[in-house]
Design brief:
This protein has 19 helices and 20 strands. By secondary structure, it is of the alpha+beta class. α2 packs antiparallel against α5 and α11 crosses α13. It binds flavin-adenine dinucleotide. Flavin-adenine dinucleotide binds next to β5, α7 and β12.
């Protein structure tokens, strides 16, 4: 089974993944959680705490503190907890005239399903019935012209809009400051004509990643873009956040795949990408890629595609330490050859993720995953093996690689059951130059350990590298600890400490999750006031009434 065989599923709001699949926390993990002091909320030594929220209660009134029965999140009905404001009510009327009333919804369930995204704080707020970040209405435009009409009308009425693609943002990218209308792009799901000679195709912004692969498969092509949110995210979201998938070493980041795009703004259309490369001024595609809705709504992109791989081979390698493994993958990134997937776990992640310690031959150390797709994989494999062995690596064989490949989308499914168990689980990512990477990793780990330790919830911090470049790489951290009384505030404190450490150690605030509202201040500090003012100036031109995702990506001018 490959990615293009995965079904297009409707995610359950507030709970990750295909609702048809259930995941249970392994017994060994439950035992390990106890060492971190994790216990189900409201349970003291096997007894329910008096007055504790009933974890099996299911739907509750919005705003009321309650836990949601696993799998029941879909039933939560916040109804009209927040009445639609008069400004938005006028917009709803106008938008219904423009699109037809069936494409404009103020239904409580629909608005609730478009409330925030899938970060851990988002899931916790969802469980608590917190309606902040809930849109006043949701519109479903069916064409680029519809989007232009929506933006023009909202601009005239001064009503904020936020584009919604797959809804998998983990950085607060769907919850702007104040009242807003969500623009759900799911009807923009066209697969345009294939240019087989240039190997490009136009894809609608609302097309899900899984649907894009399913459409390209019979034509013999693939995008090769497989983020861990692949089951939920859409083409427009990939472009708007400069997403990076697990095969980035072979296929590149999503922003490297986009060769053209059509953008709707309140002032009209921007069409970019007349040629693959150009010296005609700055590359404005890069201005809209990563703009997270603040500069317009991308309605379609033209992407580079590749032939579906004839062969696939994944294997594991062992290194004595993370430092040794880092040196090995740097050699591949700098001098080649590069495999399609290149991933290195640190000691902690290797220990936790390997169900079978025998995979490492009973030895300690760290595991790397190396994957090859395409043709003549045996030749590339042999050349990569030579470099890795020379750097001190030992091959672990195909089973370790296949285990990772088959389980690559499973990890996020564990987060909700872990939250049910009373654990706080969240991830964060950064990137830096090779020379700074060890220092960056240590600084972020120390900051998380100190912040959460000081709060009485010592964490386990796991880290891996999964995106490499000639000059540096990304670092991806997973944090697990016991939930404190207010887990949202608990994580906010830890995340602030980690963000400060990233800034001080010379890393970027995000390698692929984007900025949203969560990283807005750190992003402003990272690029400086003049760069922020330059972006705000562009925003004023395309969005004079400041209706596009206010407060997302950019601070208000
Ligand atoms: C479990 C999990 C795993 C993840 N793994 C990865 C990973 O491996 N790699 C990775 O890169 N990311 C990952 N993410 C983050 C997220 O999936 C990506 O940011 C993804 O690109 C978002 O796509 P989406 O379609 O869900 O966008 P949405 O969440 O709908 O939108 C994201 C942002 O872009 C804006 N936006 C959406 N569509 C448009 C448009 N057409 N025009 C302009 N602005 C728009 C939105 O307003 C929002 O600010 C993960 C998230 C989760 C929950």
């Amino acid at each position: 089974m490959t990615e293009s065989d995965l079904p297009v599923v409707q995610l359950t709001p507030g709970r990750w993944g295909d609702p048809a699949q259930t995941v249970e926390v392994p017994e060994a993990a439950l035992a390990a959680l106890k060492h971190l002091g994790v216990r189900r909320r409201g349970v003291v030594e096997g007894k329910e705490e008096p007055g504790a929220p009933d974890a099996s209660a299911g739907a509750a009134e919005p705003g009321a503190a309650r836990a949601v029965k696993p799998g029941s999140a879909r039933e939560v009905k916040p109804g009209s907890a927040r009445e639609v404001e008069p400004g938005s009510a006028r917009a709803v009327e106008r938008l219904a005239e423009l699109l037809g009333s069936e494409w404009v919804s103020v239904d409580g369930d629909v608005r609730w399903a478009h409330t925030r995204g899938y970060s851990t704080p988002d899931l916790l707020r969802f469980r608590a019935g917190d309606t902040t970040g809930m849109p006043a209405a949701v519109v479903f435009p069916g064409s680029h012209e519809d989007v232009l009409a929506v933006l023009a009308a909202c601009s005239e009425l001064g009503v904020a809009v936020v584009p919604y693609a797959g809804g998998t943002s983990v950085v607060g990218g769907l919850a702007p400051d104040g009242e807003f209308v969500a623009v759900d792009l799911r009807r923009l799901d066209q697969v345009g004509e294939l240019d087989e000679i240039s190997r490009t195709v136009r894809l609608g912004a609302g097309l899900r990643g899984t649907a894009a692969e399913a459409a390209l498969k019979p034509m013999g092509y693939t995008l090769g873009h497989f983020p861990q949110s692949y089951e939920g995210a859409s083409i427009g979201g990939y472009a708007a956040t400069r997403s990076s998938g697990q095969s980035s070493a072979g296929y590149g980041r999503f922003d490297q795949m986009v060769v053209g795009m059509t953008v709707a703004t309140p002032r009209g259309t921007v069409e970019l990408g007349r040629a693959p490369m150009s010296a005609a001024g700055p590359d404005l595609r890069q201005l809209w890629l990563g703009s997270e809705g603040a500069l317009g709504i991308i309605t379609s992109v033209v992407v580079r595609i590749r032939p579906r791989p004839a062969e696939r081979f994944f294997e594991g390698w062992r290194f004595g330490s993370f430092a040794q493994g880092l040196d090995a993958i740097r050699r591949l990134a700098q001098d080649g050859p590069l495999p399609t997937v290149l991933r290195l776990s640190d000691e902690a992640e290797t220990a936790v993720n390997l169900a079978d310690p025998e995979v490492l031959g009973g030895a300690s150390g760290v595991q790397a995953i190396v994957g090859f797709e395409g043709t003549a994989t045996a030749v590339r494999r042999a050349a990569v093996a030579e470099v890795l062995a020379d750097a001190g690596g030992e091959p672990l064989g195909e089973e370790a690689g296949e285990t990772w490949r088959k389980g690559r989308y499973r990890a996020p499914y564990l987060r909700d059951p872990l939250l049910d168990e009373g654990a706080l689980v969240e991830t964060l990512e950064t990137a830096g130059f090779w020379s700074k990477l060890p220092e960056l990793k240590a600084a972020v780990t120390d900051a998380l350990v100190k912040s959460l330790g000081d709060q009485g919830t010592p964490p386990l911090v796991l880290c891996h590298v999964s995106h490499v470049y000639e000059t540096g790489a990304s670092l991806y951290f997973t944090v697990v600890c016991a939930q404190a009384e207010d887990p949202v505030a608990q994580w906010r404190q830890a995340k602030t400490a980690a963000s400060t450490a990233i800034g001080a150690a010379g890393g970027t605030i995000t390698h692929h999750h984007g900025v949203g509202t969560d990283h807005r201040d750190a992003y402003a500090a990272e690029i400086g006031p003049l760069a922020i003012e330059s972006l705000q100036a562009v925003k004023r031109v395309v969005d004079p009434e400041n209706i596009l995702s206010p407060g997302i990506l950019l601070p208000e001018a």
